[in-house]
Amino acid sequence: MRVLVVEDERRLALALQHGLTAEGFTVDVAHDGLSGLARATDHPYDVVVLDIMLPGLNGYRVCSRLRAAGSDVGILMLTAKDGEWDEAEALDTGADDYLSKPFSFVVLVARLKALARRIGSRAPRRTVLGDLVIDSAARSCARAGTAIALTPREFALLDHLARRAGEAVSKREILDEVWDSGPDGDPNTVEVHISALRRKIDTPFGRAAVQTVRGAGYRLAADGG
């Protein structure tokens, strides 16, 4: 998951960047509203963590400009403690969720994952990677025009990798997002399903789309292998 943190309190921004990176997120940081708006406009983030009180352009205006430009990126706004008016205005300007300062990091991570799932389900997607086609609406997959039968779990795994095509995805993230199993999930489960995917979408076609990234996890080739 790609996250942009827009926070002018540098110590907090750095702590969030380190913490979220340790959780498997890809994190960028901006320290003012204008640079945050530019980054969110120019790059494909899944979620923006957006503080209200920012120099240059406050969080409300950043949020409203993103929505006016047609962006559907998930926006979690950081509001003042007990600031019910802040929370109401955050939602009115287009934020998807809010969290009051000070907040629990564990809760922030859970909110981000839940928000990413909601945002990802807003519009069915059809992903084309070379001759590999993944239709999230129909829950179907085809390679070179040949339909491929996948189990529900295999498809969920493939769809998750397709959302991050070209990026390394850790086993832990796969367990969290595909199995929703938390820290007690068995990484061997991921390996078994990865092997099954390769046997179905790669081996019969002489392709190598599902790649192992040593020490990092797995990657679905953006060109379909």
From TrEMBL:
Residue ranges of DNA binding: 124-222
Positions bearing 4-aspartylphosphate: 51
Keywords, ordered alphabetically: DNA-binding, Phosphoprotein, Transcription, Transcription regulation, Two-component regulatory system
Keyword set includes Membrane: no
Source species, domain of life: Bacteria
GO biological process terms held by the UniProt record: regulation of DNA-templated transcription
Domain OmpR/PhoB-type: 124-222
Keyword hit for Metal-binding: no
SMART domains recorded: REC, Trans_reg_C
GO molecular function: phosphorelay response regulator activity; transcription cis-regulatory region binding
Residue stretches making up the Response regulatory domain: 2-116
GO CC terms, sorted: cytosol; protein-DNA complex
InterPro entries reported in the protein's UniProt record: CheY-like_superfamily (IPR011006), OmpR/PhoB-type_DNA-bd (IPR001867), Sig_transdc_resp-reg_receiver (IPR001789), WalR-like (IPR039420), WH-like_DNA-bd_sf (IPR036388)
Matches recorded under PANTHER family: REGULATOR OF RPOS, TRANSCRIPTIONAL REGULATORY PROTEIN CUTR
Protein name: DNA-binding response regulator
Natural source organism: Kitasatospora indigofera
Lineage of origin: Bacteria, Bacillati, Actinomycetota, Actinomycetes, Kitasatosporales
